[in-house]
């Protein structure tokens, strides 16, 4: 096999019409920009994200591709990270989904797809890659609800996870508005959960509403859940919200759009390399884990940073 094979994945079932329409159109654009250099594109898209991930992982294992490009929102970025993390396969992201929080975090333009395609193409031609961190969640204590999972943006196990799961079920326009509607629904019935969180020789063993481990600042279409998070600092940002009622949680949620929730005395913030998350005994069971907007499984879990585990393809000249 040559070293000029590019894998492509888009989500044909996405709620955002551009994710598959643009992907098909963009295949031709990539071919036009890269064919003179001898590069070829191969489509690994499938009827489900699981099958697409299985297909592309097999291709990487068999050394059939040298680059991977995903089209879509944060869910497709999640798929891409789980395909290429800790490999030598660089990843290109074309943000055409209903949520593009990670693209925003790494300053890939969301509203100029042609420039993104040009930036990825130039990145491949000139080998312009940026190594960034990712998160890794591993089940503990014979937990069989999930297998090792990587995440690009955030992993949640609190009210934020409940909101995310509800947003995924709503039959309204995708994007930030759907997340907001889901938040109002969940805040009306919210409960405090029992957390047993151990991190950097510290403990949070109490009831609370929020538990988020972030590699990047944003969730939910622009909510600044972890304003200090950086994707290449070798750390994850842990955000914990203590016990509170629905009205207090609503105020906290609204503050989070500008990252001001971190100033609340009931919120604990820490930079970490590893977090152990378990259910606090004899307490309200925490929600299932959600990562990059996708279902993962149940705690207990170990969450840790994988420094410089993913190479992102992008050439800055595309923005000039």
What can you tell me about this protein's structure?
- With 320 residues, this protein is of the alpha+beta class.
- It folds into two domains: 5-132 and 309-319, Probable inorganic polyphosphate/atp-NAD kinase, domain 1 (Rossmann fold, 3-Layer(aba) Sandwich), CATH 3.40.50.10330; 135-307, Tumour Suppressor Smad4 (Sandwich), CATH 2.60.200.40.
- The chain has helices spanning 18-34, 49-61, 74-84, 101-105, 113-126, 159-167, 176-188, 246-256, and strands spanning 5-10, 40-43, 67-72, 91-95, 129-139, 149-151, 154-156, 193-199, 202-214, 218-219, 223-224, 236-242, 267-272, 274-279, 289-291, 294-297, 301-313.
- Strands 5, 6, 7, 8, 9, 12, 13, 14, 15, 16 and 17 form an eleven-stranded antiparallel beta sheet that branches. A four-stranded parallel beta sheet has the order 2-1-3-4, with helices on both faces. Strands 10-11 form a two-stranded antiparallel sheet.
- The longest helix has 17 residues, at 18-34.
- The mean pLDDT is 91.
